[in-house]
Amino acid sequence: xxxxxxQRKSPQELTQEDLDSLxxxxxxxxxxxxxxxxxxxxxxxxxxxxDAKVFFGFLDGKRIGHVVLFTYGKDGGSxxxxxxxTFFIVEKSLRGKGYGLKIWNAMxxxxxxxxxxxxxxxxxxxxxxxxxxxxxxxxxREYIIPLLAIAEKYKVTENIENVSTKPLxxxxxxxxxxxxxxxxxxxxxxxxxxxxxxxxxxTWVAVNENDVVGCxxxxxxxxxxxxxxxxxxxxxxEIAKKLIYTAAQTMSSQTSSKNLRMCIxxxxxxxxxxxxxxxxxxxxxxxxxxxxKKPKVDISKVIAIHSPGYG
Length: 311
Ligand SMILES: CC(C)(COP(=O)(O)OP(=O)(O)OC[C@H]1O[C@@H](n2cnc3c(N)ncnc32)[C@H](O)[C@@H]1OP(=O)(O)O)[C@@H](O)C(=O)NCCC(=O)NCCS
Prior knowledge:
- This protein is α+β, with helices and mostly antiparallel strands.
- It has helices at residues 16-28, 37-44, 99-110, 126-131, 147-153, 173-184, 189-195, 237-254, 271-279; strands at residues 4-9, 52-59, 62-72, 82-90, 116-120, 135-146, 164-167, 201-208, 211-219, 226-234, 259-265, 286-291, 302-304.
- The chain folds into two domains: 4-138, Aminopeptidase; 140-304, Gcn5-related N-acetyltransferase (GNAT) (Aminopeptidase, 3-Layer(aba) Sandwich), CATH 3.40.630.
- The relative contact order is 0.17.
- The structure holds coenzyme A.
- Coenzyme A is lined by residues 29, 88-90, 95-101, 104, 121-122, 125, 128, 132.
- Coenzyme A binds at residues 29, 88-90, 95-101, 104, 121-122, 125, 128, 132.
């Protein structure tokens, strides 16, 4: 009889083999635009460690799948915690045999039931997650926009005088983290510190006098064609355009990227309508955000989420 066990590890306990399997299966699944191999190694592979639990399924000693549970909020002393579920994958040849559900159940029992449990779902699993008490809060819609078109269309934002964009290094990190926490609805400063240090990434902030009024992180995609935005937060859409323009200029001059790729949530700003009408593009993929409680995020200021892999 086959022997199936689930092993739980913290990021501190992950071996090179564990990290390689996270990279391999997310890449095989086509998720590497948002969960780049270099991101996985950077975010999981060293201190300061993220508050996460990784569950690996082993069949007769062979690793066959995993799921990850991040807990956000404890490091910022938030009373509102979020458990974000991600990287739920079973090896292709062994799907449909009940192993995924067993790995999932091991994780589900460990979550903090007082926290808001959230994930970005693939469309095919919405009803299964719904039956566990997760509701769709918004839809994350992916758009791919040519950098050249951004340079043309948003050059006018250079004339916005009361707001300037500058590299994150020119302001105190705490001011950036505070702005992020205000928009996201909870503080996750360890995660943010690691996020802004992702390999091949750039982070800018938009500043009005001394106030942070927006931020954007962009990083080179694995295919070196689509630069990935996440997050883009801003107080209004004019500031968002200015940040998109700044990010596009840098990616054009410093990388071989041709496009900008981002996941825009529905239900907040009019960013989707703006991008569709400014660039004539349509949504490529969508990943509904599902949660057990109403998140306290200020969705009107979330122009693009961090990533479907990290919430
Ligand atoms: C999703 C995935 C991990 C499921 O693993 P699996 O081993 O194929 O699933 P199982 O064989 O254990 O599923 C058994 C049953 O439990 C259900 N199930 C699986 N995971 C579940 C979950 N998280 N919640 C509720 N039900 C679940 C299945 O739908 C199936 O129901 P059915 O018998 O009525 O069809 C696997 O299909 C996969 O790797 N897919 C590609 C990656 C992906 O899309 N991941 C989800 C991202 S949100």
